[in-house]
Amino acid sequence: MSSHEPPHESSGPAALRAVAEQVAAEAAEHLRGLPAPRDAGAGGVSTKSSPTDVVTASDASVERFVRDRLAALRPGEPVYGEEGAGDAAAARWVVDPIDGTVNYLYGLPWYAISVAAVADGVTLAGAVAEPAAGRLWSAARGLGATLDGRPLRAAATTELAQSLLGTGFAYRAERRARQARMVAELLPQVRDVRRAGAAALDLCAVGAGWLDGYLEHGCNWWDWAAGALVATEAGAVVHIAGSPGVDGLGDAGLGADVTLAAAPGVAADLAAAARRCGADTV
Fold this sequence. Notes:
Blueprint: H1 13-32, E1 45-47, E2 54-56, H2 57-73, E3 79-81, E4 93-99, H3 101-106, E5 112-119, E6 122-129, E7 136-140, E8 144-147, E9 150-151, E10 164-167, H4 173-186, E11 192-194, H5 199-208, E12 213-217, H6 221-224, H7 227-233, E13 237-240, E14 258-262, H8 267-276
Parallel strand pairs: 3-4, 10-11, 10-12
Antiparallel strand pairs: 1-2, 4-5, 5-6, 6-7, 7-8, 8-9, 12-14, 13-14
Helix pairs in contact: 1-2, 5-7
């Protein structure tokens, strides 16, 4: 598609969703055309907050691509991205060029590109594209969530003991240790726990009913901006501490930077169990 196309006239959720879907899908195609980071040599990989917090040349390339496409399709609308930063308060678009960079680095297929349209910090529409699988998740506020065009619905699970829980861990060793202690205490109370390595996709998985719940501390805005809306619009209860419009549990007492999404039948029980396991101290 030409970069000279006119911008969409509407700024409603449906129109924003169409842009997010288009840009995320095009960015996935762009990423598939880039050399694998290990093929690019040591110069293609660096670190950020810790030695385990990696960033690849592909992360930067995808974010530049997304910013260029949004500038063409929605000129003048500010972008806030993981690699290129920007003014979070003024953001119209929130971008994670590769959510699950470590998976991408190792050749594991569970990684994605997340593009969300926001207003005053609230997500109006978003899309999460999986370059390896070719899947496209999307949602618009009040208009539902889909996977490759098919409507999504969160699981009907009502028993925490029969729930499959997703989680994730921070990059810094001392916090990983605290998270691991909490998860170890939660593990006997659920069916099992999965750590797949991409927050946006874990949230989408809750929306699809592939997970009954997801709980993680330390996620950034770009990690959940699109995926949380997918889960919400699929009927999941979603709570992200301190985030406007994502307060499905009110004052949950789970910590200042917790992200929780769950099937409605187990959300309250999961939150209560997490509190008992020390979530607010993670």
